Amino acid sequence: MFAVENGLQGDPRLQAISDAIRVIPHFPKTGIMFQDITTLLLDPVAFKHVVDIFVDRYKHMNISLVAGVEARGFIFGPPIALAIGAKFIPLRKPGKLPGRVISEEYELEYGNDRLEMSVEAVKSHERALVIDDLVATGGTLSASINLLERAGAEVVECACVVGLPKFKGHCKLKGKPLYVLVEPSQLDEVTF
C-alpha cells in the first residue's frame, strides 16, 4: 500500500521526501534510473519526515523487532526501532556477521545474492517489521521474510521509502503487507 492510499493523500511531507531523492540516470548500469537517497539524508527535515511517518504507522502495532536490509535499511531501521521501543537487527550480506547465522538466497534484478541473520537475534513469536529503502522486484524483502519466519518471528509488514508503481494493487509480499511512502521520480526507464 502506498502512503497516499492510506490517509496521507496531499500530505506535504510525502512531496518533501520525493523532492529530496535524487535520480541518477544509467547507474549502476545503462537503463537504470537510480533513486539516490543520499540527498534525502542530507535534508534533515525530509529524513525526519520518513522516520516520523513510519513511527506513526508502527507505534501501536506491538512490533518487537525491526529488521533492516543491508545497507540502506540500516539507516532507517534504528531510529524507527528506538522510537517504537523495538530492537533492531541487521540482515547482512554473506560473511559479515559473527556467530551462527542462517542465510537465504534470492534473485535480484541483475543476478543473485544472499542475506544472513544471526540465529540468536530473533525469539520465537516476535512481531517483526522489515525495512529497506526501495522495493523493485520484492526479492530482497521476500528473502528477509523467509529468514525471520525461519527463526520463528511473525512478520507484520514490510516498509520502504520508495516503491515501483507495479506494486500498486499488489501490496503483498509472501502474503505480508507492503507499505511504501513514495513512487520513484522520472520513470522513463527501468528504476531501482
UniProtKB/TrEMBL annotation:
Keywords: Cytoplasm, Glycosyltransferase, Purine salvage, Transferase. It catalyses: AMP + diphosphate = 5-phospho-alpha-D-ribose 1-diphosphate + adenine. Pathway: Purine metabolism; AMP biosynthesis via salvage pathway; AMP from adenine: step 1/1. Residues 46-170 form the Phosphoribosyltransferase domain. GO terms for cellular component: cytosol. It is found in: Cytoplasm. Its EC number is 2.4.2.7. Homodimer. Belongs to the purine/pyrimidine phosphoribosyltransferase family. This is adenine phosphoribosyltransferase.
